[in-house]
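Structure tokens please, single chain.
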Amino acid sequence: MKEAIKIEKFGDERHIEARRHRPWDSPDTSDAGPPRLSAVEKSSGNRSPFSIRSRSLKMHVLDLGLLRLDKNFMVANSWFATANNPNPPGQVIDIPVAGYYIEHPDGNVLFDTGCHPDWNGPNPRWPENLQEIFPHIGGDECTLPARLDALGLGPDQIQYVVLSHLHCDHAGCIEYFRKSKIIVHEDEFCAAVRHHALRDHSTPFALRDIDKWLHLDLNWREIGRTEPDTNIVDGVRLLNFGAGHSYGMLGLHVELRSHPGVLLVSDACYTAENYGPPTRPSGIAYDSIGYTNTMQRIRAIANNTKSSVWFGHDAAQFAAVRKSTEGYFYE
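Here you go.
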């Protein structure tokens, strides 16, 4: 499988070609060649790589609906039985699903793609167990195509799609991006393809989503297990978190001019309750030691850069963030 897909290293050219808008419901399958990952000027002296700011970066927060689920999936052991209370009630909560569009003169960046619009319905992407455990709440306007279309964007105008991981609520819309550089951790990619090959429907990988993008000639860029963090474009730094919540997690550090920097950590840390201190485990974790190590690393980066940590599914935090639907962006 690996030999059949395009895997490239970061290039030395800046991608400046303007992409034409094309409708989301009729993706162009012509081969126009891949964009190259931009190289930024190397920092000199003791200058931190996190201190590089772009003069025209704009970050749009995309509200991609909600998932409804048991809180124990978010914070492990939120509820548990005791001798005096052998059948405690569960707590069903709604958590936000988010994407982040970063407008940049050297190449627009999208972080995560949310759920596929056809997650349920007559020909659903998700199996019945996922639809029952994690139903998506939100109308058509809460899908990624609708949110980007409202900003006047088609998929060809996104040069870099960064996938924090490949679970169904973060990687459901990969197939739309036929001309983008799609960035994913190598261990996450291998795990998703393995689950697909074994027809394992017991995880948050949506096999029908995977089946779709495996049959497309997409432009993948795998991040190696030991590969260092690197800048995608000025002010946007790719963070290689590795194993934890899933097999291979990625994040972004975004430097803003009029706000503190932002760490987009996705499901490396679900909520402020997980973050602590003390750190509390999530209910879904592939590598518990990696999860804890990643949490410590996030805390260190946040402290060193004086950045805010934006969690993957924190309802209270996301409610306070201004969204693209409000005509607002962060810069």
